[in-house]
Structures are given as structure tokens and as C-alpha cells.
Design brief:
- The chain is mainly beta and 948 residues long.
- β2 (40-43) and β3 form a beta hairpin.
- The radius of gyration is 30 Å and the shape is globular.
Amino acid sequence: MKLHAFLLFVACMSLNLSAQTGNIEGVISDENGINVPGANVIISDLNKGAISDFDGRFSLVGVPTGNYTLLISYLGYESVSQNVEVKEKETTSVSIFITPKTLELDGVEVTGFGLGSQARALNTQRTNMNITNVVATDQIGKFPDANIGDAVKRIPGITMQVDQGEARNIIVRGLSPQLNSVSLNGSRVPSAEGDNRNVQMDLIPADMIQSIEVSKAVTPDMDADALGGSVNLVTRTSPQGFRLSSTLGSGINFITDKPIINGSFLLGDRSDNGKFGWMVSASYNDNDFGSDNVEAEWSDEFEYYTGVDDADGEPILGEVDVDPYTSAFEQREYLVQRIRRSLSANLDYRFDANNSIFLKTIYNWRDDRENRFVVQSEIMDGEDIELGDFTLNNGSLTRFPAEITRETKGGIDNSRNKNRRLEDQRMQNYSLGGKHLWGNLKVDWMTSFAKASEERLNERYIVFANEYSVINDNSNSRYPLMIAENSADADLSNFEYDEVTEENQFTKEEDINVFVNFEVPSDFFGKGDGSIKFGGRARIKTKLRDNDFFEFDLEDDFPTLAAVPVRDLSDPDFLAGSQYVAGSFADETWLGSLNLVDGESVPDEFLRANFNVDENVFAAYAMTNQNITDKLSVLLGLRLEATKVTAVGNSIIDEEDLIGEITKESSYTNLLPGLHFKYNLSDASILRFAWTNTLARPNYEDLVPSLDVVSGDEEIYLGNPELDATTSMNFDVMAEHYFRSVGILSGGLFYKNIDNFIYLSRGEATDDSFGADTEGFEIFQPLNGDGASIFGAEFAFQRQLDFLPGFARNLSLYLNYTFITSSADGIKNEDGEDREDVDLPNTTPNTFNASLGYNDEKLSVRLSTNFSDSYLDELGGNEFEDRYYDTQLFLDFNASYKITNNLSVYADLNNITNQPLRYFQGVKNRTQQAEFYGRRLTFGLKYDLFRK
């Protein structure tokens, strides 16, 4: 009955086109035939208008028959008038081209060079009803950013977490990567990460994307699981005429002196009748680099054997008060080859003025080959340390016995692995959709299939171990060091065979998305341009992780490190400092050549990690967008999301004995209202307010109903299928002023009141419900915290400095700053006590971007900096154990020069400051990890050909 009523309603809307009205639809393009989003299209006589979408298309429905003049306005472009005739019950199609505007300041004509993409971004941001930031393709090209992650970090309120020198995980307004959503053309991007929902932003090349839109205040027609914000990546669409674009380049990584190879092309056109458009593009990047890394664990406790045993023969340990010291230290050398490929094909076809369909596809494939060499020193257990084995100077522990290991990481010898660990990551998306005009009713729909996977096959490790006394040098806690007290102890012949292992890891996530939207005109206040929009979405998701692990006994064949081929990784130019001498390790080529058969399975390495999760989300919404006055508009709506989860995990004893599988089902429903106001102070100035409600679903690993009772360590590890989704009530205020010379000055405040955030809890079993004699065992389990809050402020300034004299008028300035403060309640320490004054993890107090550029008719030069403050990354059992992500300051330079109108040369220099990835434990000077990547130089040719 409900379905029949709905179909009757849709039919009535589609037939509600009176005998005296018709429709207008069209596409707006720039001087090069590239579609422009965010253009204002107005019929002044009727007080009726529309905004072009990201494909440059617009539609006006229910227009009375007659002749009208369309007025098209676009920031940075000349206004255009177009005469149209509206016929009864017909849809009139128009194609409109706009050209850049030349300003006159003090009698002097001023031309802005290279501002087309900036104009597209700012016009989209300006005309959107909600609070957004937009970056367009050529803007991305103005910065030396190879992937989308590096491009996104330039946006206000965005912080990126770095992996191997590239921006990978996105933090929006201080909220963790798994609390934000990433979409591709409106379809959710699945995650290849095994234990969280993070989307790998470094997987997608920047030159495959047309624009990036970050919605910081979502509307009811958008997915609600965007606690921090929603990032939509729009791929390149078919041009209005022929376009050929290509890039060919090279470069060098100074840390390895290895070459970089990159290339891309784009080819597209439209049929003579304008109905069929197509575009294909591809990108390739081969980057051979590495990193120099030191890591440490800090402790403030020290125990030793007193020489006396208790009645049961157990050693009695003594404790000594000590200053914080490094209980474990590692020096690591990474050698990495990262090959990134991407292929995209987009098609669209217009059957008539009222009906069109499109197909958008993209396939991303990244091979990450890695060798890792690690020398680790870790203090021995207290029962193995006697009184004369250590030295304590005024509370500083400077000498103690340690276990030292030398580890080589690699892979098998074949054409894919090449003696390296191969991480094969792929992300693909195929979307089919359409747009239709049925009388007064606008309908758009899309169905998509997306898949992300990560496969790591035949990943090998070989370890040789030794025990000797070390000198522990913490005199400079930012660069701690452990070295052998007696260098003879570190001879390769003293490192005995410990283990050879081989593991396989596979993770995949598959998404099926279907949505449909309906929109009808509705004018509640008699001010025109109102609408009612409603629709639904279904998202069917499957997440699987399937790992295994094998160990091989080769002790008789290779008793010591001296018995195998070795490679000396010592480097006087080691970026963390010449005091770090790596020494020799088992050769990775020899490791890859080993014929490993009949290995013994090691379940404790994978049983807890394996799971299968099905998550189905069904959503419906309704909203209205109305003009209350000539200056004030409102968007009001409600979204309903119903979630059902089926999770399968393992029940385990002592990490290795599989008892069986555990399956749990859970479901919950969220009702999420939203309200947006937009007030036009003038044609150039806007005030915005938003009240929204969003959510973030738990990580898959946390939802899995796993149980692992480790009797030897008196520890219990639990999943939690009963976790609630984290929810947030959000308030935003934003003011924006747009400059005629294509720029913006904006500032705003935001507040988030968060409920049920998730953290890893440490507790204690109060009885034997987890098995005999488990009372008192330490329990590790993800739990919902009580609440958290975030308050922040954003500022942005962007414009050409055309008011300056002479050549200086070609300078441009780009600035943005974000401040965030946060608090979290309900977090307990290892003793079960509430912790006070705790920040919400991943909330960066201060972020800043600045860029000074110069653009004339041929030359473009830009110096850019990106700063992010240190922040709490991971909660430990107490303040001493908390891990922080340290301050980062990147400085990049790029330049390009036009040889002809179509051909240009470019050069980029990245990471001029040699900024390391650094974590610290508890206090800033206590380094937990410092990883250096060095500088990178790239250069090449770009070719662009447009023909309308």
C-alpha cells in the first residue's frame, strides 16, 4: 500500500506540468570547453534561478511559456546573457560558454593568469548551501602534490597522517580518519585497511581527480557517517569539445639517489550532435625511495634479581627508582619502490533534453615493494638482571644487559615480489547513473560497485639474536642510542639463528551502493527557487580479513649470522645522525631464494586478526530548501539511517588454540535532523549557520566478537559487538567575502558535542566468567567513552595581489589557519580510574597553510608551507604511556613555464625542510619514533590541447 501511494505521488508530480509551462536545461563551459560548476543562472523577470552542478549542467522547471533572457554570472568571468524560448510541455536546451574577466584598477587593466580552476572552486563553494571547501584540478597542479592526500592537506581544518613520506590518512577538524567519509563521485570509497575504516588517500593520483569537495556541515541528502566531514572526489568528466592532455616527467629521491618516473594522459571529446561524451585517462608513477628511522620505548620502572628465591623457588625481584629511560631501541632502514597506476573511463549520453545517463569508472593499483632492516636492543627481564649487571648514575640507567636482534624483511624471488615484501593495494569503482526531468519532477539515481583490497603474499622475515651488555645513552632524549659495551660482543658470529617466518595477508572490502533522489519545486514564502527533495539509499558492505603465518626451523643450516650472505647497511649520511651505525644484516636476495617448505603454522600471529563482517545501511531522507527573504535562505531536513551488522570472530585460548567461531548480530537506528541558514549580506559577502547531526560507526576490528584468554600473561582480549556508533551534534558559523579578482576572505567557529566515542579500555576481570582462575586477569576491550567536545575556529585568505604596482600585481597569497581545542570524558587508566584533562585523540590544536605565488602569461612559481601542531595520537595506560604525533612543517617549491600555449615545463622540490615523521611518548623530548625521508625533486613536460 505504501509503495502504491509513493508511486502515485511521483506520478502526480511528473504530470504537474501545466499546459502553459516548460523547462530549460543546459550546460555551461569555459573558454576551453571545460564544464564549470557553481554558476548562477537567473531569469530576472520571474525571480527564478538555478546553480550548475559539478558537470556544469543546470535545469529550470515549471517556466511559463514565452521568451526570456538567461543571465549567467560567475566569479572571475564576464557575465553572459542568453535568449531562450520556452515552449509548452517542452524542455529547451542551451549551451553557454563564458570567458575570463579583465579588471580595471585605477585605469589599468589587470589580467589574472591561471585563475580558472580557482574560480571553479570558489564559485562552487560560494553557491553551495552548506559549509564546504573546494579545490579544483589546476589548483592541485599548482602545488607539488603527487596524490590526493597531499593535495587535501592544503584545505583549512585538514591534517594528514604521513606514511613513508606521503599523506595517507585524513583528519578533518581534529577527528580521526575513521570518523570521516570519503566518496568518489558520491559513491563511498571502501577501505583496504584491515583494522579500521581509514581510506588510503595516497592510493589515488592527484591528476585523476577534477575537484575535491570537503563538506564540513553535511546536508540530509548526504551520508551521515561523517563526524568530522565528508570528502567527495570528483573524477574528470567528458569535455564539451576535444581535449588532449599529457604529462611526462622524471626526478630523483635524494635519500636513495634513485630515479622517479611519472606520466599521465587524458583524451576526451563529444559527438557533433552533443549527445555522446567520452573521456579516458591514465596515470603512472614509479618512485624508488626509502627512509631512515629510529624508534624507542620508554619506561619509568626497573627490576632486578636480588639473588634470593621465595619458598616456591621463584626469584625475588628488587625495584629501583629510575628516571625515564629507553627500555627498547631500534634502528631501521627502509628501501621502498612504490608504483602507482590508475585508469579511468567516463561516458555520458543524452537521449533527449530530459533524460541522460552516465558511466564513471576508475581502477587504482599500487604496488609497494619494501625491504626493511632492523637492529633492536631490548632490556632483559628482571629475573635475568643481577646486581652487577647494571649501572645507575643519579637515577639515570646507563648500562644493562639486553637482547639484540638483527632482522631482515623481504619476499620471494619472482617477477612480482622481487625479493621484497609486496603490498598489492587496489581500489576500483564502477558507477552507473542517470538524470531525468519528468514534468516538474527532477530525478537522479546511481548504482555502484566498489572494491578495495590489500594482499601481501610470501612476506618473509629472518632474525638472528644475541645477548650482551649495552650502553644506554639518553643524554639527548630526542635521539636516544644503545650501543654494545664491548664491540666484540656484537660480532656477527655471536648472533645466533632465531627464526625464519613467512606470512600471507589478505583484506578486502566490497560495497554495493544504490540511491535515488527526487526533487520538486516548492515556494513556501513566495520568494522563488524553493524545492522539496527526498530519496533513499542502500549500502551493502562486506569486510574480510584472512591471514596466516608459518615458521621454519633452519637453525642447523644457518646457526649464526656469520654463516649467511650479509649486507652492510651502515651509512655515514644516515638522516637521523651519523652516530647511528646499522651494521650488517642477512642479504634480502639470499632470503628470497630460500626454498621454504613444511613450515609450522603459528596461530597466535593471525587467529585474533581474522574476521568477517557484513554491514548493511538503509537510509531515507526528506528536506526542503527555501528562500525566506531576498537575502535569507534555509535548508531544513531529516535523515533516517538503519544499520544492521553481522560479525564473525574467533574464540581462542592462549592465542593459538582455536575453540570455534563466534557470530553476533546487532542493529541500531539513528534519526539525524539538520538545519542550514545562508544570508547574503551582498553579492560578495555571505553569512552561514548550520546545525547538523552526524555519526561514525565502530571500526570492524572492534566490532568482531573475538575472545582470546592468554593465561601465561594473565590477559584477556575481547571484541565488542555491542558498541554504539559515535554520534555528534555540530554547530557551525561561517562568514565569507569573495573578491572580484577571484579570491576569498573567510572566518568561522565550530563546536562538536560527541557521544559514545570509542577507545581501548584496560580493566580487570572481577570473576572467573572467562574461564577457570581468570579472576584478576587484565582485560583489553574497546568501549564507548562518556562524551567529548571539540571547539574550533577557521580562517582563510586567498587572492591575487592585483592592487600592487608593476610585476607585484601578479603575486598571489594563499593562507589558512585552524585552531582546535578538545576534551574527553569517561576514559579510564590501567587501574580503572577516570583520567582527567584528556584531549580527544587526533585533535590537532593548530594547523596552518601558506603559499606565495607568482603568475604571469608564461611563468608560474609557488613556495608553499604546511604546518600541523603536535597532538595526542594514542592513549596509553597512563599519561606516561600516551603517544603523541609531533609537530610537522613542510616546505615545498614548484615552478612551471609555458613554452607555447599548449606546452609547458615544470619542476617541483618537496620536503625542503627534511621533515621527519615523529612520535613522542608522554613529553615532547622523549622520541618514540623519528623517520626521515629526505628531499624529492621532479621535473617534466605538460601538454594541453583544447578544441571547442
